[in-house]
Amino acid sequence: xxEKFYVYILLTERNTLYCGYTDDVEKRFNExxxxxxxxxxxxxxxxxxxxxxxxxxxxxxxxxxxxxxHKLTREEKLKLISNN
Length: 84
Known about the structure:
84 residues; alpha+beta; GIY-YIG endonuclease; three-stranded antiparallel β-sheet; 3 strands; 29% strand
């Protein structure tokens, strides 16, 4: 069985959304919570994981992360989360 990759969206204390990709969502979430994740989540503490999607390759996950981060509006991200 091959490695799996995930795109995830976190809800922060300031009611903002943060999107990333990883091969271990829980581990990465804990890194964000402990200030070891992205610069953004050090300033905007995550409170919970609100979206995950699995991919079979890192490249697919990275492309989807880019699409969510750079192409979707907040409203579109919220719709994506509610449809999950």
